[in-house]
Specification:
The protein is α+β, with helices and mostly antiparallel strands. 27% of the residues lie in helices and 27% in strands. The longest helix has 9 residues.
């Protein structure tokens, strides 16, 4: 069984306690580069993310998480 490589993504937390992930990258810097443009995008809206952070995540977990809208699971990275 092949070992799945760890990648990095940005976790975006929302005021309602939910979160999502975006920008899967093989390096932390690649994920980090996506934060400022995303922050600019949400700046004008009535609801804005409360926090951003780069987290380690497998590509498989990243893909599985796409269907969890408003996820509040404590076991997510």
């Amino acid at each position: 069984m092949p070992v799945e490589r760890i990648h990095f993504a940005v976790r975006r937390d929302w005021p309602d306690g939910g979160h999502d992930f975006f920008r899967l990258s093989p390096s932390p810097g690649g994920a980090q580069d996506a934060i400022d443009p995303d922050r600019q995008y949400w700046r004008r809206g009535p609801v804005r993310p409360t926090a951003y952070r780069v987290v380690a995540i497998s590509p498989n977990d990243f893909d599985l998480h796409r269907g969890r809208y408003g996820c509040r699971s404590p076991d997510c990275p």
